[in-house]
Design goal:
Blueprint lengths: L6 H29 L6 H8 L3 H7 L3 H26 L3 H16 L2 H15 L1 H11 L1 H13 L8 H21 L3 H17 L7
Length: 206
Amino acid sequence: MVKTIPKKSSNLKIAQGRQTHSHLLTIASELFAKQGYAATTTEEIIRIGGVTKGALYHHFSTKRALFEAVYVEAERAVAARIDASAETAGDSWEQLLGGCFAYIEACSDSALQQILRIDGPSVLGLAEWRRIDHLFGRDRLLPFLEHLVATGVITVPSVLAFVHQLTGAMNEATFWIAQHPQRTIALEESKRMLEVLLSGVRSTPA
């Protein structure tokens, strides 16, 4: 005879599992951001998280899998900042500028920089890093750029070429900022330069 688990008990177990999953992500995010992937051990995550080794590996099969989950959450945090910037911007042009500025500002945030720009490419591998980066960056930006072209805000010969070059330029800027001895200055210089570059494709009012 198969013993059925009461629904209330099952729901509680699911909720506890989600809570443990979220708790581990929070602990790992803080450690990866503060001391980097290489210096962070699973033993340290287990100790600080107050969980068993079995619990950790139940949710994340490897340390790399845990980092990938942390990386995706960091990308989501950046996307949220971009969306918040767009909501407070005025017209479509200001939304473009504000969103791009929010992107390089977020990626220059010390809490995210170690994960997104220092460890991300090396831990995930370039191909996987690019796939996730495109998912949260290029693939979200492309429809908006198509809208800007359709409404005459910008003029470009190829939207697809433009989105690749724009996201590539912003990514390179964030890597440069990450390595710069005066990151605040580098960020402001990058924002000014980005506005100059974008102004080059802005349609001239009739």
